Amino acid sequence: MKTKIYIYCIAFLALASCADLDLNPLSQGSSESWYSNETEIDMSVNDLFRDVFWPDLNDSWTDDYTNREALTPITNATINGEWGTINTLWANTYKVIARSNTILLNLDKVEGTIPQATIDEFKGNALFVRAQKYAEMTFLFGDVIYSEDILNLEEAFTLGRTDKNTVKEAVYRDFDLAADLLPLSYGSSENKRGTKGAALAMKARFALQMEDWQIARDAAKACMDLNQYSLHPDYENLFLTQTRNPNELVFGIPRSRALNVTWTVRDFLPRNAGGWGGAQAPSWDLFSSFLCTDGLPIDESPLYDPHNPFENRDPRCTATIVEFQSTHLNFTYQPHPDSVMVMNFNTGALQTNNDTRSVAPFASFNGLLLQKGVDEDWLPNYSAENDRMLMRYADVLLMYAEASIESGQIDQSVLDAINKVRARAYKADYSDDSSYPSVTVMDQESLRKTIRFERRMEFAFEANRYRDIIRWGIAEKALNQSIYGVLDPVELKEKVVDAGLWFFPMTPEIDENGIPDLSPMYEAGLVKRLAIRSFDGSKQYLWPIPTKEILINENLDQNPGY
Prior knowledge:
Elements: H1 2-13, H2 38-47, E1 65-66, H3 84-104, H4 116-141, H5 153-156, H6 164-181, H7 196-209, H8 213-225, H9 235-238, E2 249-253, E3 263-264, E4 281-282, H10 284-289, H11 315-320, E5 326-328, E6 331-333, E7 341-344, E8 349-352, E9 383-384, E10 388-392, H12 393-406, H13 412-425, H14 444-458, H15 465-471, H16 475-479, E11 482-485, H17 489-497, E12 509-510, E13 516-517, H18 519-523, E14 528-532, H19 547-552
């Protein structure tokens, strides 16, 4: 118990040296003597933006993703307060909040000794981080522990949870203060601290989660009115490693092999290129949600052919998922069971096709591979240093549109915001209706459907899907469905290939949220069920408070159902 208390104290007060993190930690020193000059505070502010303090809300928790037959505590409804992800997130979040508080409460030490503009930037960044971290905690846990002070041990264990509406107002205030203090940009610098636009955009995201439509709309519009951002002209190129600091990036965390900040990607890569064959891959649910080039879902469009499912689809489909018979990492990608040989463009010769299950049993179980962001620089060490885009301008535009739709303020600016995002995918001018399937209707219900399809296509595998299905209240529908893949090779050839039904035996129905019903193919015996997702809507819309925190603080109560 003493050990647990000590760990909690370190996490909350941030008075000890860091755990083993990717980037260089602060020099060890007392907070009483630190913060005495510009260099020390600058180091402290940089420390707030370590990769470890900005975890993704994982795509594996959603219906966009499959990992062969594996599930997660969220997708099999076994989430509890002992889950390591929750414990790590809780500890690291309160650690960075405590460091933000400490900076804010020590800035008076340098007043008069460094320029006020520099102090304002330090303060703005600390406020931005504190606001964003409390916003995330409120979204995940509801009522949370809230403090703006530097607490001693006794004080730390007298704190209970603060009502989320009180925390919400404090978060809005901090975002506003940060937006007033932060610069528009850092020029040509690769500095990835907060900016005025980042504070406004993150405020809009949080307000959408809280269903404060007017606040969200105003914040998104204010970010747009800065005229600081624009959509990158090439959607597919946007996510590659070499596209550093694009004008679309509102806020992100840089990765760098030189600084040992990377992520492991071998599970996403084809077996022919040395990967593990799509162990982690886009789901059929996601694949089926991409619209056709006429702007209609696949169950409504005459352009859709389930046997050629990549044809006539929104360009973001093939920018996200590797198209069959295309060249991917210098190999032809073809999971068809009869394609036992494929071209290796490195050698200019045919080779055994390890990306079909008729050759390699652990090739992609659903035939799909991730395309988005994947490049040759992921080889040969199977790690990636693509920058993490935590907020981009496309999100700002779609948040503005959604907040306007939900608040009943539907006008041409709403259609323009949606159409700019969609037209970019087609490399078209959004004002040219003939070059892409533009959105023209102004009916609230129709536009709500449009936004949900658009967000799923635009932000696949960017850690946005979990936020969306939770805040829209559709996680019960999205996650109480099975994960499907292709039949085992012998049965696949007999029932699907020889019957002329490759790749999809039939077209699934798509609901108003972009969620397909794939079960008829399974009931017909034409596809294999890989796993059964489960989501308990009676409790899972909020996460449990870590069990160890409940045990060591009698003033903490648990969320219902855990």
